[in-house]
Design goal:
Helices cover 34% and strands 17% of the residues. By secondary structure, the protein is α/β, with parallel strands linked by helices.
Amino acid sequence: MGRSKCTTAAALALCATLAVMLPELVAGKRYIVGGNMGWTTNYNYTLWAANQTFYRGDWLFFVYDRNQNDIIEVNKTNYETCNAEHPVHNYTTGAGRDVVELNVTHDRYFISSKGSCYGGMKLHVHLSRIPPPPRAAPIKSDSSTFTVLRSQLVIPAVVTIAAIWDSLLLRV
């Protein structure tokens, strides 16, 4: 039993070290479709979408009255004609709070199939290319290699060794 605790502690220490050493991952942005209005009738979703920049990995939150509306993803032709007969996907879960991850790189088209599409209740999401990361600042000439090594390798290694040492002491 003591050996499994040691292994678990070492694995947790390694994970913590990797989390410190790896750069922070970019999380997608969350959009409430329609802002404060939500997914409802009598709202211009074309104008709303034009004021947003969507990237792969972003999330759309649809908030609506589940008794009156739904969320259907369709192709471009069916979007233009408000035809929901052959949906790409039906995101309606019945709760009136549905989430769509923008996990592909092509444009997406959403409509309400309960007649509201003809009144403008449809959304075209254009996915933009993710901009390149900002360029790193040049290294100052007075900084040493040791400073870089200390911050990126030595400190996480010391934390890992201390955690493993501590787990071994708990075993005794």
